[in-house]
Structure formats: C-alpha cells, structure tokens
Amino acid sequence: MRQENKMQIYLIGFMGTGKTSTGIELAKLMNRELLDSDDLIVKKEGKTIPDIFKEAGEEGFRKIETGIFRNLSQDDNNYIISCGGGAPLRSENVSFMKKNGVVVRLTATAETVFKRVKGDTKRPLLQSDDPMKRIIELMSQREDAYSDAADITVSTDGRTPYEVAVRVASALTK
Ligand code: S3P
Fold this sequence. Notes:
Layout: E1 8-12, H1 19-30, E2 34-36, H2 37-45, H3 49-73, E3 80-82, H4 91-100, E4 101-107, H5 110-117, H6 131-149, E5 152-155, H7 161-172
Parallel strand pairs: 1-3, 1-4, 2-3, 4-5
Helix pairs in contact: 1-7, 2-3, 3-4, 5-6
The structure holds shikimate-3-phosphate (S3P).
Shikimate-3-phosphate binds at residues 15, 19, 38, 49, 84-86, 123-125.
C-alpha cells in the first residue's frame, strides 16, 4: 500500500522544524484539511498552552495531549496533523498515530531551530536564559523518540515550507 493511502498524515519533529508552515503547504498540495494538536488542546481546554503548563505542569499538558491523539486515531477523516513537538515522547501517542496514519518527521539543526524560535514566548519549554543550550539538550534527549516514530524523515534546513511539502508529498507516494 502506498503510504499516502493511509488516512492521517502526522507531522512530528522538534519545535521550530516547520510542522505548521509545512502542514499549510502540504494541505494545499494534497487537498486535505490541516489540524494542529496544540490548537485542539487550546480549544478543548479554553486556555493557552503557557497557562496549561502553569496550572497543570508538563505532565498535565501531556495527559490532555494524549487524549487528543486517542480521539484522532478514531477519526476517519483524511487530516494532516501538525503535532506538538513533545507528542512522540509518549509511546502511547505514537501507537495512536500509527493506528490510522503515517508519521512524517521534520528535522532542522539546533542553529536553524534557534533562529526560528528566537523571541518566542509561547513555548514554555524554551523560556530559558540560554535557549540554545536548552534546544541542544532537549533535541538530544528526544532524538530516539523522534527517529523511532518516523516512517519518513525530511530535512527542512535551507528549504522553504513549500519545498519541504513537495518532498513530503513525493516521499508519501513512494
Ligand atoms: C512542545 C512543543 C509545542 C507545544 C508545547 C510543548 C514540546 O508545540 O506542544 O509547548 O514539548 O516540544 P510546537 O512543536 O508546535 O512548538
């Protein structure tokens, strides 16, 4: 079976690897609807991501996130889903993704991520005096979870979201 025939397309990867911007282009190319797991969480809770982290901690956020992936695994629409960067850390989430979808990992170097997320205040895990150090630490802690989850991997360094989307679409038809 061609990968594109699997129902959902889950875009995973570290913060700032371009999951949302690639998702927008991919949705146009493939004529599919784009969802964003963070947006679904915000809608469900009626709170911002920083407020959820403040009130429930990262663990509380992760529980809500898993509920979102459980629901998506039961949805038979052909969505493209831009996933929060930490989603693959729970193997349960990855099982939900694999149940009805193909997992596409986007990568970027720590330098590229730093340039893209510099000055961002909406990502609680990067609010640090030394965000570059934090990016390097988190990336290395997460490397195995991302690579184990991925069916397809595409690098985004030096590429526009459209160029990345074209590569993803082409990999999905192989
Ligand atoms: C997180 C990434 C964020 C968001 C939350 C936690 C992470 O999503 O889910 O701040 O643990 O990497 P993006 O990857 O869309 O920034």
